[in-house]
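I'm stuck. Please check this protein.
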Amino acid sequence: MANPCGISAVASQYPKKPGRYEYGTAGFRKDADVMDFIVMRMGLLAGLRSKVCNGATIGLMITASHNPAKDNGVKLVDPDGGMMVEDWEEIATVFANASDVELEETYADFAAKQNIAAGATGSVFIGRDTRPSSDRLLEAAKAGISAIANLTAADKGVIPTPLLHYLVRAHNMSPASDYWSEMGSNYQQLSAALSSGGCGDYQSTVLLDGANGVGAPAAVKLDEVCGNSLSLTVINDGTTGELNKDCGADYIKSNQRAPPNYNFPANQRCCSFDGDADRIVYFFTDESNVFHLLDGDKIAVLIAEVIMDYLQEAKLDLNVGVVQTAYANGAATKVLNERNIPVACTSTGVKHLHHRAKDFEIGVYFEANGHGTVIFNDKATAAITAAKDAESTADPIDLGPAAQLWRYMNLSNQAVGDACADLCLVEIALRKKKWTVQDWDRQCSFLPNRLLKVKVCDRRVITTTNAERQVTAPESLQPAIDSLVAEYDEGRSFVRPSGTEDVVRVYAEATTQVQADHLADCVACAVYDHANGSGGRPEEPAPLGAKRVKT
């Protein structure tokens, strides 16, 4: 149970900072200077959650993902390796906002409501990223956990966020599996099976931007376990550059350009992780120095197509669906519909996509930012396994389609989006298709788009509906957006508040990049004007003239 003296002591050691704090989709994220007391309190909550879950291990990850290095954050991982259930997000917010003198009573009240038995035990795995503040916040987490009796804390070191999710899930399962050895084995055997008939124009060489974060050493490890089947060259590996500074998946997606500190060879297949390696995007620069982005939308289309190919080859009747958000490029939805792959749209946030993907026997979900995975339900897993066993041979290279699909299924980190696992899924898909990155890019011509952020005094003034595609408040904002969108051919734009910071995210797409940029800039100004923007107003773009709309 609780150790009240311990809770009182850590509350005084890590006093609450002024302000209100909310547990969002990605947990808590703030300037690292205000995170100490929040991380300590999440240590308390992780211990409580473990005891409520009958001693199952809970994960506590210290990271701010793609945010600047000066920020940090914390989120909890449930026993199944997924995000903490939504009901407990509200409890996390209560814990974070209790006064120092109320914290002991707050813990005791929640513990009593959960009917925790005397002597109940629990355990917490702690992971952290490479930020300068992470070691300090690790001590805060340990302090919170140590304030509760009968708890153990295991420091898993500096690791990618998806790896902590995996470790928690694996530890709570029986038998546990090893992340790297399983990934390497599945990748190598799939590669060998697919290569036996030739690889066409596919080449296994990939240039990887590690965002100067924890994903860089993970990519080096991935290259090692995949052997000769994959050749990764890692840049922005953290030895010199700053975390997420002019690099990483978020930078590339938002700016529609490659990191400026490297001369990328023409037509070289490249990919980029974000700061904690739970997102991935691909890109290349062609011989005319034109940048091409293959984001989460194109990844989802590729993976869904390959799964459909495998199912047809293995003669398996399982339904496959793709889950998108409002950020999905309109052309991606059109392509999936043309190929008779069902599409569902849900609110932004991995928890919403993950939940919706469970409605399919095989659910593929990716946000456009590159965060996603593939989920196989029990029926699909059993059917694929049975088909694999029926065609099993002693030769690891002679794998039938069901055996290949089984290994493809096991490459996926089904708990959470995972840049390393998703890289493997993409590379196997390209090898199976015998495609270059240019072949992949040509399969679907996406509408040019732009993503911007606008600072506001309070993000909560904006509310949305229809899977976040329409604004309901302030009432004047949606008509302003509609008026702007109407001026662009195939124009589309929406805005939504961030789940972690006081900014509003603006998305726009149109038939040309110039139009998409212009529409995004105009909508950003509208958000600032109608939603109480803070700081400097975005610069008003010059008029495009009468040719905004293509004739």
User: Anything to note?
Assistant: Residues 296-314 form the longest helix (19 residues). The CA atoms of residues 77 and 102 lie 25 Å apart.
